[in-house]
Every structure is written in structure tokens, then in C-alpha cells.
Amino acid sequence: MDDHGRIVEVNARAGVLLGRPPGDLLGLDAHDALHRGEHGEPVPRSRCVLREPLVTRGTTQGDREWLARGDGSVLPVSWLVTACRLGDDGPGILLLFHETGPPVSAGRGPTCLAASMTELDRLALLAETTTTLTSSLDVAETLRQLVRLVVPLLADWVVIDLLTEEGGVSRAAVVHYENGGLVHHEHLEGPMPPVARGSTMPLSRALRGVTATIASPETYEVEPDSAVAVAQRRLFRATGMHSASIAPIRGVREVVGALTLGRAERPGAFTTSDLLLVEDIARRAGLALDNARLYERQRRVAETMQRHLLPQLPHVPGLEMTARYLPAPDASQVGGDWYDAFPLPGGATGLVIGDVVGHDLEAASGMAQICNMLRAYAGELDEPPSKIVERLDQAVTRMVEAAMATVVFARVERADGRWLLRWTNAGHPPPLLVEPDGRTGYLADAGGLLLGTDIMAAREDAAVVLPPDSTLLLYTDGLIESPSRSLDEGMADLSRYAASLARHPLDGMCDALIGRTRPADNDDDVALLALRIPG
Q1: Where are the domains of the chain?
Q2: Cα 381–356–406 angle (5° rounding)?
């Protein structure tokens, strides 16, 4: 394994013992893919003795561990793990093992698995639950990790019901442990009946945050007192669960949903000891889900505000104009990127591309203020772009919530039968001019400090005649910037791709540029404003 615990080499004998083609294991996390408890249950990462040499760079060994095989059984092994070097790839670890007995079927654990766990095992599981679930602010990822933590360790079925923001109930996950893997039963997922306030059935009580309960098929074979009870009866019949532990998932302020763990193939009903552990896990899941929901709610508000602030582009006779805006790829950040275009006194058209520093609601709010101030100054003052931006910079430093931003402000107008562009740049990536024959050039003149530095320096203007059929691209750094390459490389890529698309329709050109130029590891939003000069 490499120093992250990922499998990089497997010999043929190991493949035979594990019942898997060696190539299928490459790239997998060795702990997640192989390490199991005696009954096939996952082992908490914090209790993984195989990972010790990753930290100590030493050697450790033992004669009582179990590895998962391809057919779902577990193989008892004696083992030795030692630190090593992987040639030029740096440090790694080597796992040597041999079988100490025949493979045994997984999932045939004791009737009360939680009771058989030592107190240290229980604490390790709860610690891993807290660490794992709070590592993400994405609801779907939090649910996926929750399922992985409890199945098949505590049950072979897991059902997660969530209360929606509209007050309804959604069955977000129904997952079964089958043949050594997790299988989603999507036909059992989806909208649920609303919570019945007067219902005494376990799921209804859990969704109201009342209590955790152990249930069985007989619990729901009585006369149902709500539509939720009818849905639960169908669930027990469809899954074959003979025992279930149902616990409320509580957030900081309110109930988030309910967690149901069920046993069908595994013998033995849930016990009070099991129920206390499940309730503790559900409580930790509630805090993680509550945080994820609050974060997603804030992001949606900011992104919606940002999208609504982006303008409808004006119609300028003779000019073709289009724009694009894309939020951050992982939807975890909201930025302050914006574009704008509007008529100016004297018949010219103002063009703006800008980026407020930051990735949060404050950045989006600062963008709105700066965008509106720039429009106001440019619409009232018939002055060169540099003077408009100087006034804007003074205003930005007086904002209650000080912001820093980059911006290119330009004016394009027809003069003496030609199209003239005049612009100034406050710390922003330079516009790119693409001529119809594929020649390109960055308009790098008239550069100055970004806005909000409180350093007042005279700004410059630059001007260029835009050739017929040429394309002007104004963009934010999310289109070219990447942690894995230099800014110069990103600008070179943009120039090369734009040259190859010089004669494409403007809309198609913009879509292709974003698809080909935007880095895969980009963590920023992107704004793009494009202008096509008539022939």
C-alpha cells in the first residue's frame, strides 16, 4: 500500500486467498476493502491495527484478524505489516499474511452484536461516527457514510427517513447488505405520508422526536392508526425484517428524521443495549445532518441571490453578446463573480467582469453592492473608464463591510465606421481578443491595483480597435486557475482553445471554452462575457 493506505500492488497468491483478481484491488483503500471483524462487520478505522505502521513507520504483527473475500466470506489470517519504500514513489507499507483457517460465512454474528462489543469498541465506533459524519457538509455524502457505518455492523437493513423543509417526510435511503456489498432498493424510497401527530406507532413517534423503540412485524400488523403505519407495514413485508430499532435523528433545534436498523437474515432481535447504541449514533447523525442542511440552505440563498443579480444583456445593434455563469463544481462554495453590460451616455455600451474576494454569502453581498455602484457611476458620469473605477474604488473603501475585488470596466462604441474598445483593469485577468483568422492576444495594458486596498493611485485607460468578426472574451479566474498548474499555463490553454473556436457561433464557442478550459480541480465559480464584432 502507499502512504495513504491505498493498494498499489497485489501478488497472485494474495488474489487466490482473497478470491479476487489482483487488478480489481488496485487503488482501493486497504482498510475499507479488506479489513473486517470476525462476523464480517466493518472495523472502525480508529481500531485498525493494520494501519499502525502508517504512523510509526515500524513493524507490527498478529495472528487474529479477518480479511474480506470476493464471495462475501471472511478469511482468518496471521499477518505482518511493515513500513517500506515504493521505489521512486516514496514511503509505503507491506502487508504479508497467510490463512489460519478456512473462510467462514460473514453476517452470522451473535444475536446481540452491540452487547458483544467491548466498551472500547463501542467508544471507537461512536468516535468514528462523529469524525466521519462531520467531515462533510453534503447531505447525500453524510447519509452514505452513515449507512456504511451501521451496515452490516449492527444490522443488514438500514432505512433513513428525513423531514423535508416543507414539512413532509422523504424516505431518503433503503439499503440492504447483500453478498458482501450494499444494495440500494430505490423502489422503496421516495415521498412518505405526513407525520401523524396522534399516532403511537414507533416511526411516527421517532419522527416527532419522542423516543427510540424496538419494533417487529407484529407491531404494524395491528389496525394502523396513520398512513405512515401502513407504509411501515409494507416495508416490513418487503424487506423481511423480523426486528428493527427505530431512533429519532435530532438536530440542534429540531428533529431531522428517523433511523431504522433492521435484521432479516441475521438472527436475534434487537435488545435494549443495541437500542442505546443506535440512539447514540442517530444523535450524532442528527448534528451532522443539521449542519449540512444549514450550510446547503445558506448556499442556496447566496447562489439564488447571485443568479438574480446577474443582468439580462442589452440589445446593441450590430453587436452579438452572450454570457455564462457557473457556480463552484462541488456546490460547496458561493463566490462573488459577476458580469454586466449596460448602455452608457453618448451611445456607448459598458462591459464589466468582476470578482469579489471570498467564497461565501458576504462575497455575494459585496458583489451586489459593487455591481450597483459601478452601474450608477457609469450611468451618471460621462468619463473614461479609469475615472469611473477610481470613484468606485473610493466608494468600496467606505463600505460598512469592506470588500476587495478585481474588475475590468470597458466601453465599446462605434466611431468612424470602426468598433473601438476603451478599458481599465483593476487587478483582474486581462481580456482576450480572438481574431477571425485564429490570432489571439491578451489586452494586458491599463492594469492597476484591485479595489478595496485603500491605496489611491491614478488609473490608466487603454484603447484598441476591434477587427471585424473578432471576439472579445472577458472572464473570471475560475476559468483558468488551478492548484495543479500555473496561471500562465491556464491563460495559454484559454488562448489556444479560443483560437481553434474563432469561427464558431458565439454561444457554441462559450460552451466549448468552459467545457475544455475549466480545470477539473477548479474550486471557484466562473463568469464569462463574450462579444462578437460584426463583419
Answers
A1: 6-99, 119-298, 310-533
A2: 60
Task: Yes or no: say if 528 and 511 are a contact pair by the CB < 8 Å rule.
Answer: no
The set of residues, in sequence order, having a beta carbon less than 8 Å from that of 262 and lying 6+ positions away, is 155, 156, 157, 158, 159, 239, 241, 243, 244, 245
CB–CB of 323/529 below 8 Å? yes
119-298: CATH number: 3.30.450.40
pLDDT in tens, 30-40: 888 888 888 77
Between CA 116 and CA 110 the distance in angstroms is: 7
Is the pTM above the cut of 0.70? no
Alpha helices in 187-330 (DSSP H): 202-207, 227-239, 272-309
Q: Counting every residue, how long is the chain?
A: 535
- Count of beta carbons in the 10 Å neighbourhood of residue 182: 15
- The Cβ of residue 465 has, within 10 Å, a number of other Cβ atoms equal to 12
Which cell is 486 given? 500555473
- Of 109, 154, 121, 133, the C-alpha closest to 275 is 154
Q: Which fold has domain 310-533?
A: Phosphatase 2c; domain 1 (3.60.40)
Please, what is the average pLDDT of the chain? Answer: 87
Judge whether residue 309 has pLDDT over 70. no
